Amino acid sequence: MNLLIISASQRTQSQSAKVAQYIAETSSQFNEINHIELCKKRLPMWDGEESSKENSASDWLAINEELKGADALILITPEWGGTASPLLKNLLMMADATDIGHKPVLIVSVVNGISGAYPIAELRMNAFSNNKLVAIPDHLIIRNVEEILNTINKSEQHKGDQQEDSTITRRDKSIRHRIGYSLHTLLHYSQAMKSLRETLQGDVYHNEHLYPYGM
Fold first, then answer.
1. Consecutive H or E run containing 19
2. Does any domain span residue 215?
3. What backbone phi and psi angles, to 5 degrees, belong to 37?
4. In a domain, 204, yes or no
5. 142: domain range?
6. How high is the mean pLDDT of the chain?
7. What is the model's pLDDT at position 153?
């Protein structure tokens, strides 16, 4: 199974990218793991025209190839002003259901405080209607992010090693364990939904091309 992690902060050296790197380093159950840091890519603000995706100053085609090759996605967004990243929402509007429909998504909200729920609710409500990505029931909110996920636990690097870094706090250990559970869940969704996509491709509904978008 191939995993694509997208971190969507508009800042370089962001906490969202740090979380993405931690997840990438501990997602050994996936065969291939790729990370796209959106602020380092060139994407136009989409105007609804297919031609605008492919202009010479856009990295869309390369990004879309990674989207098409993924079996599962993790979308990581900071919470700014109670909303999800504009970079991420723009990308999700550009993505087509023919390329990424019926692929499972784990949503991750990152905040340097105690909030973080609003981006999850926003993305669940309106980010997946047309591209037909499927958000799994589980999600992650990484609160007080500057204080956690700053080191890799020895037992995370080497399975079965019981030695732990004494500098990792109880709350840090708890969120690391929750991340592991979420990755475990996402893996099983990716396996099941790959079979689902193959079934849907082989059992095309009459005139289903009339319904490229959500209702």
1. helix 15-25
2. no
3. -100, 105
4. yes
5. 2-210
6. 92
7. 56
